[in-house]
Fold this sequence. Notes:
Blueprint: E1 4-7, H1 13-22, H2 27-38, H3 40-43, E2 47-50, H4 52-60, E3 67-70, H5 76-89, E4 96-101, H6 107-115, E5 119-122, H7 127-140, H8 162-177, E6 183-190, H9 193-200, H10 202-219, E7 225-230, E8 233-239, H11 243-259, E9 262-264, E10 267-269, E11 273-278, H12 285-301, E12 307-309
Amino acid sequence: MAKILFVDNDDSCSRKITDALLHEAVATGSFLWDVAERYPAEFNGSVASATPEHAIKCLHENHDFHAIILGNDVSQSDGLYFLKELRKKYNKNEISAIVIVEQEDVQSPLKYIEAGASDFIRMPFSPEELCFRIAQNEALLPKYSGNGSSNNADHLTQLSNRRYFYKIAEKLFANSERGHIHLTSAMIDIDHFSFLNDAYGEKTGDLIIQHVAEILHQRFRKTDVLTRYGGKKFCVLNINLERSFAFSLFDNLRKKIEQTPFEAAGETLKVTISTGVYTMEAVSLKEMIRKAGVLLQTAIKDGGNRVLVD
């Protein structure tokens, strides 16, 4: 049974949502009540609410919540603080955190993801979309991680291996063809890796791959499907990522890797990546990934350390 904690800055939030769940069809409570009625397997009526301060106390007291929804009335500073406190105790595989943001808000989602949010959803949203996001984060995609089985994980990075990635990605692509979700594909390559590998040795090369993989794992949402595609390349499928948001997401990732020191043989090495991001529809999953790969090759030819989006 899912237990969901709705975090809102209004001191009377608990009473309002309880009333909404039982009697009314107003504000956020109406969404939760509607979803709970339609999808009892996911919700089973187990929705609680609290202010950010009280929510942190609840979590410290080991309340058994499986998903948290951070309301759009919570200030950005309070929301970021709450997420950082949440992640001190629970990782993304233990409790999902979905942040509600305004339609035109471009910068906040990036900051929330960096602070530990599992996903975000823009206002206005339908009950079906909210349910889908919660079900995705709580029940489905933890199974997609390669970490659960050595047969599904890349031995060096512990990300999903390519075989398992395609197993999951084909299912997601089928859902996208039905119109349930939108997929974005990205191919990522470590710049000048052959030089670094030859100059500092294969062991350092492996550490560089692990270094990049760890940052990728930290930066993407739990709903995104990430794999070491082969050698120094990575591939990620993003679910319901707006095209306008794609460049900011991947360029911030590029900057993070460039700005994160990597020490080897007593030196600080500069590690950078190039990325090709394909946001349009494609006739097949392989075609979608191929087009991201073409964009990646163009980014590399243009000098590397850059992001190209189509």
